[in-house]
Amino acid sequence: MDPARPAAAHPEAALPGATRPEADLPAPDDPAFLAWLRMLAYDLGLDLDLCLGPGLDIGRDFDPALDIEAEAACGSPGGLAFLRAAFADNGAAPAPFFAPLVDEHRRIHAERVVAALLARARQDTGRALDVPVRHEWSDVPDGIGRVSVGHEIVNGLDPVDIAVSAAEGVQCHLAERERLVWPLCPDHRTGPHATRTPEGAAWVCSVTGHVVAPVPG
After folding, report:
1. All residues at 6 or more sequence positions from 97 whose CB lies less than 8 Å from its CB, including other chains
2. Which pLDDT does position 10 carry in this prediction?
3. Is there a contact between 160 and 110 (Cβ–Cβ < 8 Å)?
4. Which of 111, 128, 163, 215 has the fewest CB atoms nearer than 10 Å to its CB?
């Protein structure tokens, strides 16, 4: 880890299994919270677009009140929850202090998902498998770094989106490095796809589209 990167308090939302009382978080339409999002949108540019995922436009015409509503409507409330927790714990942290929070948030959730998936794979196959979770700091001081599972880049702030990316990374790594198709749909004996569903991240059958199993998140 680069010791030159600034330290900031990690929001509890970034920690596995943690929950935050609603009363401890800023309201989604809190003026100070919205001003902070505008600042991050300006300082981070497209990087923040990538963090929040599809459906949230925070470009030059960013309207936080509308876009926060869109964030929840497009099925990614976890991203908004992370931002609210980060603001509650750190205030209007500038981009160089906020970026490491995103890096750690993604890394923590990706590592948890990978560990759970590999434990299940060992139950199913009897093999002790390994899939690397890597983190690289950004080349610019106020940039968001890169977390990857195998060769799959982990995007998003919502733990559901992180779980989908991590599951894809595990599946691809096992196929490429171990010549192992895992998991399998028990009905069709084909590899399902990690997908975001209304119930969360799940393995979805590539033949009929039914949910095979949830992806731990």
Report:
1. 6, 8, 90
2. 66
3. no
4. 128
Q: Contact, 107 vs 133, CB < 8 A?
A: yes
Task: State the alpha helices, DSSP H only, in 16-93.
Answer: 31-44, 46-52, 64-73, 77-90
Record the tokens describing residue 29, joined without a space: 């339409």
The reply to whether omega before 183 is within 30° of 0 (cis) is: yes
- Distance from C-alpha of 188 to C-alpha of 174, rounded to nearest angstrom: 19
Q: How many Cβ atoms sit within 10 Å of the Cβ of residue 181?
A: 12
Comparing CA positions, the residue from 13, 8, 9, 142 lying closest to residue 83 is 13
Helix (H, G, I), strand (E, B) or coil at 109: helix
Residue pair 129/170 in contact (Cβ under 8 Å)? The answer is: no
The token duo for 124 is 């199913």
- pTM for this one? 0.81
Cα separation, 40 vs 47, in Å, equals 9
